[in-house]
Design goal:
Layout lengths: L18 E2 L2 E2 L17 H11 L5 H13 L5 H14 L1
Antiparallel strand pairs: 1-2
């Protein structure tokens, strides 16, 4: 039915060879075992990138939120710079 030995068997079973003094002798002409490999999912790669991101600069975030709330964040100079960079990208 199957080639699995019963658990109660005490003697070791030779693999790719015959028993010699209680040990196995490997047949050099037998095929070699393939190598193992690991594949990471897309989610795991994204999590690794997230882990490598720098810490949030909370002081800067709080300052920008405050400027946006008070209406002082958007200045003509900042808008001109954004338009210039957008034009260069096109």
């Amino acid at each position: 039915m199957t080639d699995i030995n019963p658990i109660h068997r005490l003697a070791p079973t030779p693999i790719n060879g015959s028993r010699v003094n209680g040990s196995s002798r490997i047949n050099p002409s037998s095929p070699t075992r393939g190598s193992d490999s690991v594949e990471f999912s897309g989610v795991s790669r994204l999590l690794a990138k997230l882990h490598d991101l720098p810490d949030v600069r909370q002081g800067l975030v709080d300052r920008v939120k405050s400027e946006i709330a008070s209406g002082t964040y958007e200045t003509p100079e900042k808008l001109d710079a954004a338009i210039t960079e957008l034009a260069q990208d096109l």
